[in-house]
Amino acid sequence: MITAHTVRQHPSAVLLVMQLVAVLSYPFLDGSVAGRAVVGVVQMSVVLLAAWAVRRTPALSWVAVLLGGPAMVFTIFEALQPSTAWVVLVSAVFHVPFYLYVSYAMIRYLFHDDKVTRDELYATGAAFTVVAWAFAYVYAAAQVVWPDSFAGLGGRGDQSWFELLYLSFTTLTSVGLSDIVPIGDHARSLVMVEQVAGVFYVALVVARLVGLNAIRHSRR
Asked: pTM higher than 0.90, yes or no?
């Protein structure tokens, strides 16, 4: 059971685990409206709690009120009406900046001093998964604005949110399995941005760890 104490002590670890649990749980709940809604709201609640634990600032309070609250509401709306274009689009408008801000908070947490704790190591994975979630909503919005932006094994047309999340993870990790691909120019532009973000993120983390190792050796 996740308690407030656990979130305070290991916020990034809790966030990373819950993100992965949500990924593993979603296929079992794909046919259940209530199940998808519960998983979405719980997952977003953990994201918000983890961000609050690592970066308590007035800005985060505003993000929680202006973006986090409406995003949770539209998570439920999406579970009820996954094919309604305006619901998907408005949901993305709230989810994308919310997740990007949380990833920024995690990266700031990782870089805030010259020591790396165990939870900060988990933060590298947590921030990565949060970025993948953000781009999944970017792609969901893209296929509303530009229909037939993506194609899967079943041909071109609207892809489910979970398929877009899968595309986001394969793009961000540079795996590129290509069973779901962007075929519209706008979609390809967005995928290229995520590819750059994935490479840049890995380079950022490696540079951080190398820099800390150099600082450690210089103090001996």
From this structure: no
Q: What DSSP string describes the chain? A: ---HHHHHHSHHHHHHHHHHHHHHHHHHHTT-HHHHHHHHHHHHHHHHHHHHHH---HHHHHHIIIIIHHHHHHHHHHHH-TT-HHHHHHHHHHHHHHHHHHHHHHHHHHTSSS---HHHHHHHHHHHHHHHHHHHHHHHHHHHHSTT-EEETTEESPPPHHHHHHHHHHHHTT----SSEE-SHHHHHHHHHHHHHHHHHHHHHHHHHHHHHHHHHHT-
C-alpha distances (whole Å) from 150 to each of 11, 93, 153, 194, 217 are 35, 20, 10, 15, 49
- Residue 183 phi, psi (nearest 5): -120, -15
pLDDT in tens, 149-178: 999 888 888 898 889 999 999 999 988 887
Residue with the larger pLDDT of the pair 127 and 142: 142
Is-contact 109 210, C-beta < 8 A?
Answer: no
